[in-house]
Amino acid sequence: MLIALGLTLIYGILHIVNFAHGEIYMLGAMGVFYAHVILKLPIAVTLVAILVLSLLLGLVVERAFFRSLRGRWLQLVVASVGLSLIIQSLAWVAFGIQEKHVPSFFTGIVSFGGVRLPVERLVAAAVGAVLVALLYLLVYRTKVGLAMRAIEEDEETARMLGINADGVAALACAIGFALAALAGAFVAPIYSLNPGMGLEVILMSFLIIIVGGLGSISGTVLAGLLIGVLQSVGGVLVGAEAAYGLVFVVMIVVLIFRPAGLLGKA
Fold it and tell me: Could you tell me whether strands 109-112 and 115-118 are parallel, antiparallel, or unpaired per DSSP bridges?
């Protein structure tokens, strides 16, 4: 959901589907491994460093790659695909092909109603919920969020009214990158890590924003919850691989009856 929200935010402001978003997720996870496991930095310091670096990376990428291509959809797509390949290729060289593992930040098991869940997964879910709430407050309860929505609605008019569209776009890109990197950081103890780990996640994120509706934050949250439940329940009932097929079936059904997505604009 966090990765999909970052994609949605960037799409809404820059009108680009950022294919490099999965690599930002991967870099966040790798950052935890090298900072927390190798360098032995406290996890709090590691997470703050990942947050700051991902924000800066988002600003740099927007300025260096996306700003000069604003309004040219095909060129933006090619640029984001190229950026994805560059980051992943460099990551294979820098991090190697051996999978890496991060010990749990939080140990223990919570039991309720006959269900046992690791504390680390509950903490990851709680952090995700908090970040979603903060993003919602930013977009719908602040002047910065009002500027973002104005640019999404009509960038030319927003510029005429004095809104710094380039600055708002850079901020949106930075926040989107930060959401992806933090998502990677909090799943680092749950999954094994490798430079190609972003591919599956970016595909699932595309499914989420398509089902929820391109550019709709509420739709992305709803679709993320729906697909997450489908994967979990489907994985138990019919197996993990079949559960992926079930997700695609749901996507097709939604698009037949709601081509713009659950909460997207026609």
Answer: antiparallel
For the purposes of burial, counting CB atoms within 10 Å of the CB of 53, is it exposed (0-12), middle (13-18) or buried (19 or more)? middle
Q: 168 near 151, Cβ under 8 Å?
A: yes
Residue closest to 65 by CA, chosen among 86, 50, 48: 86
The residue among 138, 150, 261 whose CA lies nearest residue 208 is 261
Domain boundaries, the chain: 2-194
Q: Which tokens in the block code for residue 237?
A: 């009932």
- Residue type present at position 121: R
Instruction: Please give the pLDDT value at position 110.
Output: 87
Residue ranges in the chain modelled with pLDDT below 70: 266
Predicted confidence at residue 266, as pLDDT, reads 64
Write down the pLDDT at residue 168.
92
Residues in the chain: 266
Indicate the residue type of 165.
Answer: A
φ, ψ of residue 13 in degrees (nearest 5): -95, -45
Quote the CA–CA distance of 136 and 142 in Å, as a whole number. 10
User: What's CA 145's distance to the chain center, in Å?
Assistant: 18
